[in-house]
Fold:
Amino acid sequence: MKSKLITSAALVVGLLAVCGSTFAHHGSAVYDTSKVVVLKDVTVTKFVWANPHSIAMFDAKDDKGNVSHWAAEAGSPSALSLIGWTKNSIQPGDVITAYVFQSKTGSPVGRLNKIVLANGTSLKDSALGDQKYDKAE
Structure:
């Protein structure tokens, strides 16, 4: 009986340790969520449909034609699939408009807010919903 109690206690402590780091991971403190960066006519280079976050990578050109390589994280595949995404929602070569909460460091990485496909279809990210769209558009 004593060994079952010790085993159960060890299991609870282990789960709490894992869950604590999981909750800490899901913050958005590294992104500037006060404004959305709108990147028009970007070309998708890769889309990773994987846990814990899907990642969209794309190339954006500035007014002078200089290319910057962006990466934006989105929700998990299970969360994204509930709101209309599939692993084939975007493919390399697709031209999209990306709405991104950029890293506070100014580097070309961020949290995806939504994308708009060439046909006008809008796909939101599961984590931040409809926040901030009006300020960006």
